[in-house]
């Protein structure tokens, strides 16, 4: 199977001494949807930042789409930059993702950066806001949104770029039931390879085939075999219980 994201003997410790990766090997291949769990502060978000080259590893390698992103133990920014736009990372804190004056500016930013015209970028942004059921927020000031609204807009900024892989850090935090349903439905339908960091077992069971626990810098596989994903449920948005 085609390798999308891989850690090869990765090492990383935070300045406070917390080891988040210790000789860590891991591969996400095409078609795979996995979850990472683990106790607060064990380093899950840190691993996601290492995937994107937002933090320099202490040792080892990160490979994206089969290409090594470290050269002689140094982070190769050029290589990360080549592949970053192919991976959609939604941060745990939406305030890390939203930096433009309005929602439409934030969601158009990625497509504009990818080289789309202003008109096409606006179209893609509006289509994504529609998909998420939040088109009415388009002209709102991003920093004045509620926590749940910010989280949906942060997801929109990533989906608008048509990523090849999704990495989501606690995507259901702050969402009401209707929006949790919508999130699940959209993520089931898009069928992109996925790394999901979530403390919510129900969300994980609906979206991933395999679960890992990060402990002492190692990813321990919790599910011996790939789990069958539930069939895509198109009836669950708008009302109803999140079961
Ligand atoms: N910007 C930072 N600078 C220094 N240390 C940090 C920073 N962000 C996180 N840490 C430290 O890194 C360690 C791992 O944090 P991280 O956010 O990756 O954990 P997590 O597993 O995602 O936790 P949670 O489940 O609470 O979201 C913690 O000890 C944390 O204090």
UniProtKB/TrEMBL annotation:
Membrane-crossing residue ranges in chain numbering: none
ABC transporter domain mapped to chain residues: 5-241
Record-linked SMART domains: AAA (SM00382)
Record has Glycosyltransferase as a keyword: no
Molecular-function GO terms, alphabetical: ATP binding; ATP hydrolysis activity; ATPase-coupled transmembrane transporter activity
UniProt-listed InterPro entries: AAA+_ATPase, ABC_transporter-like_ATP-bd, ABC_transporter-like_CS, ABC_transpr_CbiO/EcfA_su, ECF_ABC_transporter_ATP-bd, P-loop_NTPase
Signal peptide region: none
Keywords: ATP-binding, Nucleotide-binding, Transport
PROSITE patterns, alphabetized: ABC_TRANSPORTER_1, ABC_TRANSPORTER_2
Keyword field contains Nucleotide-binding: yes
GO CC annotation terms, alphabetical: ATP-binding cassette (ABC) transporter complex
Family: Belongs to the ABC transporter superfamily.
Record-given protein name: ABC transporter ATP-binding protein
Organism whose genome encodes this protein: Photobacterium chitinilyticum
